[in-house]
Design goal:
There is one protein chain. The chain folds into 2 domains: 12-42 and 170-256, Rossmann fold, CATH 3.40.50; 45-167, Rossmann fold, CATH 3.40.50. Helix content is 39%, strand content 19%. It has helices at 23-31, 51-59, 71-80, 95-103, 117-121, 128-131, 147-154, 176-180, 191-200, 204-208, 217-225, 239-256; strands at 12-15, 35-38, 43-45, 65-68, 89-92, 135-141, 158-168, 185-187, 211-215, 230-234. Helix 3 (71-80) links the parallel strand 4 (65-68) and strand 5 (89-92). The relative contact order is 0.16.
Length: 257
């Protein structure tokens, strides 16, 4: 019964997503019998430089395609922009980002099969013959990977980044080190969050001994370099993929008990 109805029974899971993105995963963990401990390894705030978002607000009608990197990018964009022009095409990375656009009453024109930039770049509509000379705006947080924009530029597109928010490390560890003493499994949603968690943890060796869920092979590479030895790679960063990884670890733990 434990493995089917309450597969995470009494297992304590540290959820390190930004506060705005953590509620769904915490709820799923608790529904599965687990105990969700929350520590935001990334904080979301207004962008330090607002020039790019101001430019897009004033010139949005010039763009042919808008790409949204994350659900936060969607939320911050529509907190700032009254609307998007009717003729602009839309694309997004990840099912949660697509859902966030849907909550705004918008549908996707170009949706990747996967959950990352690489998957989006494989779409036929983003090959050179379709985007050469087109103006594309990418709504994102400050910084981040340049792969998407650089590749679209190499295919002839005129790419503009609109920085709608910034991500930063928490100023202090807060309750983190006390929470780690209780934690069975740690989940992270990005390499940035993992690095922040590592920097804030007092006992690096103890941190690395925890079971860890990361989204994708890039997360595995960083976690290994930081000294983690019990790493499970989730298929992507969605709540559902994370839960599948947590259930897999829980099944291993139950066999040991």
């Amino acid at each position: 019964m434990r493995l089917t109805e309450r597969p995470l029974q009494d297992i304590k899971v540290l959820v390190t997503r930004p506060q705005q993105r953590a509620a769904g995963l915490c709820q799923l963990i608790e529904q599965a019998g687990g105990i969700a401990l929350q520590f935001s390894a990334i904080e979301i705030s207004e962008p330090a430089d607002t020039h790019s978002r101001d430019y897009v607000r004033d010139h949005i009608e010039k763009f042919n395609l808008a790409i949204f990197i994350s659900p936060t990018a969607v939320e911050k964009t529509f907190d700032y922009l009254a609307r998007l022009p009717a003729g602009i095409r839309l694309s997004a990375i990840g099912s949660k980002t697509v859902a966030a656009l849907g909550s705004q009453g918008l549908s996707i024109d170009i949706e990747p099969d996967g959950h990352d930039s690489e998957a989006l770049l494989e779409q036929a509509e983003l090959q050179t013959e379709h985007i050469d000379g087109k103006k594309i705006v990418i709504f994102r947080g400050e910084g981040g990977r340049e792969l998407l924009g650089d590749t679209l530029k190499s295919r002839g597109a005129d790419v503009f980044y609109a920085d709608m928010y910034q991500r930063s490390a928490p100023p202090t560890a807060g309750q983190l080190n006390a929470q780690l003493q209780q934690t069975d499994i740690i989940t992270v949603s990005s390499n940035e969050g993992l690095k922040n968690l590592y920097d804030l943890a007092r006992d690096k060796q103890d941190l690395g001994a925890h079971y860890l869920v990361v989204p994708g092979e890039r997360g595995y590479t960083l976690a290994s370099a930081l000294g983690f030895s019990r790493i499970t790679v989730a298929q992507n960063a969605t709540d559902e993929a994370c839960m599948n990884a947590l259930k897999y670890i829980a099944s291993k733990l139950s066999k040991k008990s």
